[in-house]
Amino acid sequence: MPFDPVILWTDALVYLLVAVVIAIGWYMQRHTHLLTPWRRVTHSASGMAALTILFFFILTGLLDTIHFRPALDNTSNNLGEKVYSVEVLSLFDVIATPLRTRVEKTYSAPLSAYLYAKETVELPDGSQAREFTRLTFGGIHLEDPEVQRTGDITERSIRGAAGGLLVWSVIVMSLGMLLARRHKISFLQMQSEIWKGTTETPWHVIMITLGLILVLLGIVVALSTHYHVLGTDKVGQDVLYQSLKSIRTGLVIGTLTTLIMLPFALLLGIAAGYFRGWVDDVIQYTYTTLSSIPSVLLIAAAVLMMQVYIETHPEMFDTISARADLRLLFLCIILGITSWTGLCRLLRGETLKLREMEYIQAAHAFAVSHWRIISRHILPNVMHIVLITIVMDFSSLVLAEAVLSYVGVGVDPSMISFGTMINAARLEMAREPMVWWTLLAAFGFMFILVLSANLFADAVQNAFNPRIKTLSERVSRSSHQAGNMLQSNTSSSRPAPAAISPEAKDNTVHP
Amino acid sequence: MMPLLEIEKLKTILNTDSAPIHAVDGLELKILKGETFALLGESGCGKSMTALSIMRLLPETAEIIEGHIKIDGNDLLLLPETDMRKVRGKRISMIFQEPMLSLNPVMTISSQIKEVLKQHFDLHHADAQKRILGLLQQVGIPDASRRMDEFPFQFSGGMKQRVMIAMALAGEPELLIADEPTTALDVTIQAQVLDLMRDLQQRTRMAILLITHDLGVVAEMAHRIGVMYAGEIIETATCEDFFQQPAHPYSQKLFAALPERAKRNQGLAVINGNVPPLSQAFQGCRFAERCDHAWELCRQTAPEWIEIAPGHRVKCHLFSKENESEYQVNMREKQTTSAIEAYHATPHQDSPLLNVTNLKIHFPIYKGLLKHTIGHVKAVDGISLTIAPGKTLALVGESGCGKTTVGKGICQLIPTTAGSVQLNGSELTRLTRNQLRKKRAEFQIIFQDPYSSLNPRMRIIDIIVEGMNALVSDHRDRIKPEQQLSSHQKENKVDELLQRVGLPPEAKWRYPHEFSGGQRQRIAIARALAVNPKLLICDEPTSALDVSVQAQILNLLRTLQQSLGLAYLFITHNISVVEYLADEIAVMYLGRIVEKGHVDEVLNAPKHPYTQALLSSVPMIEATSRRTNSTHLKGELPSPANTPSGCYFHPRCPYVMPICRKIYPDKSTFSPTHSAHCYLYSQN
Fold it and tell me: What DSSP line would sit under B399-430, residue for residue?
């Protein structure tokens, strides 16, 4: 076998999460009434745009989760077995091999052909001079970067964008075909419906977002073969590669932490609110005590203890990745333990309210068991709180990881994450000229990830909360028109609202 | 005479997700100076939207798209917002339904009233204080000089509504809009507030626009009446004309749907269907779909105003000259079709189904760090009652007297402190949770609010099946697998139940929010029936519903009692429902039953002063029965945490004697079924 599959701890948990999501999806497919709120999610324009972006993040994260150890070329030990590299690679690493392997000497600015630091070079005449030397890989194909670089970049960008557009149009066509077949209308009709925005799911928004992403992706791919699109860091590693690798760390911290804390929060919060009495007292004391310990201290102590343990037991870890991964998992756990109290308190309060609701009383009157009341009556009615908290926590956990790594108690220094990137960029901010790209790249990626997660969370919340009613575009447009009419009346010295706007009238006839 | 308020062709729409809702659609009305105009209608008819349109306080999604609202000839809709602020509170004031929510809890009441004064008058501090004091005295707040600096939470519901009225009067308005001012209050408090409003109107000569759904309140208060249906007024008349001869079929139906004693052994007339959704465009008469008299013309052309008597106008084709013959035909038809089947009284059985003796439910009051008990709220303080199979016992009382606690206590939903509850001879209070499960199927409870009694995240079928499952699964060990209901059988059972309560079987796949209040209450009844109970505890099942829907539910309850032999413990504050449905009645005051007996005995010859006051506080529709010397109660229900010594009622009793303050009176028996606790009668 050319490789040896490796399943790290966090990998296993991510696989578990994916399996759970698929299982829930399959279950909901069979129980269509559970699908309806999710269908409403698909009707939200901002939510679907955010989901399209998230899709690319999740794809990168998942590709980066499939780990293996490649076999070393032409080597086998004395028993005739293949020897595998000590370096653990992921599928993503293989795809991004050019990014990973083309390491410069030190800093270089985005799309530059020169190093960012002067080096002493020996000139052909034997004398020495300090100058910005050419990069080993970036822009190596250019003979005179000063003259050719801009033209070359433009040309490659256009070619990349064109490639992106081509892929995009293929996707649009095939998707249009699929949709047309499903709705049993002609292809052209489907296209006109998509672009007029009359479809239930805002396909045009998805298409536009997808188009933007693909064009950007095309440009980046086209440029990254010959340049360092986001520059290089202190040891010459490509910043784009680092940013992309950081995505997995962020996603793992954001999802696994909630996964770990959720059972605690759900079980204890609902139990405290539902059973009251001594159960409530015990749980309340527990979480009050826990939340009064400064969480950074707790995390620092736990992480440092873990680090000592790892260092004193080197025989337990056969690769560096395994060490770094265990530390990541431990960070998730400790973050989970310190962050469940908020959700627990919220759930306790909501359950206290719900247990007095008449439908719970009715369930008592039917002698429904405590477990069934909790699982069928209380849990579904607090699910919107859980869902909102999960997504809100996702964002704050991604940010917390960055802060903790910056302080030095976060992930292992060998693991690439937004926090370690920022930490590395910290000192360089003070130097003149400033090295800004590492920080900007980490900031940009983190911002987009968190923003799209929040937008998606909003869409989910709107869809799941039956009390939230938003004005649809059509109606707000018609009222806008009525407003205009009111204004025109004002100018003609009759400020009273006068007539129904034609569109509003239209709506009443054909609702 | 120039009308004070004149509304012409008012149209207000609410923008929603889909089509806009025409909440008010071409409304016209005139209110003269010093008169009370009552806007009557079911919920969802656009009454409150009309009030908010007049005040120009509509929610953001709503807008007035057409019409004029003129006060003394000035169109309010032409005024800029700054001028409008001078109108609100000064010329037009408004009082709202919920006194608990309309006062700011962190401001003293005097500072809240002062805000109004500051807006409209240029008063010095001392003058303002004097004026506030005067206003509070005017609305009958006792000890006003001390209480004016208190916060809203220190006032009871009725007192808060008085404060609201004082605030509304602060600007000396010409028009007072009262949006369901007494709906949230008890009958005795309602009587006080209505008295106050009538009295103030006589003194200040202001006009009142009274918005209500309660025909009784209308009869007591209004000079003229407008009946509102689906966004428009369909009948206007003077109060006398309207109550003697309601013209519009809808108005007639409203009267027919009212439960009262005269209709005891018959079904109530129901209005089929619901108020039509206001998002559609109407072609003909809006009531045509639900009208018994409707014919082709009604569905095609909307009727115009027809004057059938001076000051009595109606929008109905039945009254136009050319349709007179049609009307006659229809009236004759009506005679035949509306003959409502008579119900037969169920045969009397002697052994009681439910026997409650000396039931006490006390809630401890905790205080301090260690939470030691410093006292008890005596929510239920030793009540005894019995219900025979197939009979209805009505438990009547003001809110806060412990009615609901009795219901929940009997259902074993809250632990009882003392006493016994026997169902079919077996004691319920001492059973463990598991033992109780086996008994649960015999008694069920229906709650007041149909909106919170169904889990919003469950489908109807799941809601109904849940009870069956829970109570059947208990016997799983004993029942052979083939005897258990398969899911198919369960579905059939659910269909049958839904049909029994008058809902289509397809309803089972839907979620509760897709149903109206009345339909939800039917679902709640179906859920209770699913386990074949013998006793249903109905906790104000109709008080959240409109009159026409209430009639449907009452009819349903009555039919179910006939066919299934159910016994009801009917907890309510609505005397007319009691008159209609109950066999026996127990009047509750502050956790104790003060009088009980057969419904005729108690209602015809109430003995206890509280029962007398309660009955006289109920607004009456019949013009003849309007009492001049009504004995409206003073004061309010004391806290059950701090009960008065002796007879609990003595602080409010008009006939109080020295002994009443010392010892709680014993039972006085008037007949084998009728008894009361009062020193006015010889003690047993």
Answer: TTSSHHHHHHHHTTSS--SEEEEEETTEE-TT
